[in-house]
Structure formats: structure tokens, C-alpha cells
Amino acid sequence: MTASVPGTSPHTAEHAVDVLRYSAFTTDPSGGNPAGVVLGTGALADTAILAVAARIGYSETAFVTARDEAARRYRVRYFSPRAEVAFCGHATIATAAALAERSGPGELVFDTAAGEIRVTTTTGDGPPRATLTSVPGHSRPAEAVRLPEE
């Protein structure tokens, strides 16, 4: 599904942004994990990209900010309605499916704030499928904190 969402930049007039809406991890569009995908940001400033993500309202929206189509390599940034995040698995799957619909199946490389992500896409009888190995997670021991009793 595609929708136009106006985004504003403090230095430019209003822009129309084509937003693709995908549901990852399902073949039913009303299920799965919804994610917005913007395949081209043009000259949008970060504040405008954040405003678009906020208007979409999904937990994350992926924005393709640069591309080398011959190498099938893309710079992808992820935004929640409130801030940029380093990585989002379901938005990565959604972005890969959108690109596979337009450019065909095969391997894609996404450069993200969390590192390089390789995604393999396939097409067949149904919607495109994407497979990836997620970036390593980061954790640290929890600090001991006494919670107030209710």
C-alpha cells in the first residue's frame, strides 16, 4: 500500500513523501508487524524525516537515504515516531520486500547505524520473502534498584 505523507523541512517548502506500508512476518496484510518504508528521501532534513515517521505512527519506519543499485547496496535509517534507532528487524524485512518487488530477488546489502546487514530476497507464488541475520545485540547487567511499594 502506498500513501503520500507531507513532510516539512525548516529550510524547504512542503514535500510529498511516498510511504509504502508493509506487514512483516505474515502473508496477511492485516497481521504481522507493520512498518513504513520510504525508498527515497530526496533532500529531506532529519527533522522532516522524523516528522514523516511520527505521522505514519508505526513503531519504526525505514528510510532509504542512499543507493548503489548496480551493487544492490543501500543506506537505510530507521526512525520511531520520536527518534532515530540503530536497527529494526521488521522494517529491514519490509524494506527488502519492497526493493525485491521493484528490482527482483537476490542479495541486498543494507548499511545501517548498527552495521552492515545482508538480506537475501526470493520471489515466487506469493509476496517476496526476505531472510537476514540480525546484528548482534548489546546488553549489560541490570542495576539493582529498589522500587517503591504500592
Automatic annotation (TrEMBL):
GO cellular component, one term: cytoplasm
This protein's UniProt keywords: Isomerase
Record-linked PANTHER family: BIOSYNTHESIS PROTEIN, PUTATIVE-RELATED (PTHR13774:SF39), PHENAZINE BIOSYNTHESIS PROTEIN (PTHR13774)
Domain of life: Bacteria
Organism: Actinacidiphila oryziradicis
Pfam family, one: PhzC-PhzF
Composition skew (Basic and acidic residues), residue ranges: 140-150
Family assignment from sequence similarity: Belongs to the PhzF family.
SUPFAM superfamilies: Diaminopimelate epimerase-like
GO molecular function, one term: isomerase activity
UniProt name for this protein: PhzF family phenazine biosynthesis protein
InterPro entries xref list: Phenazine_PhzF-like (IPR003719)
Region (Disordered): 120-150
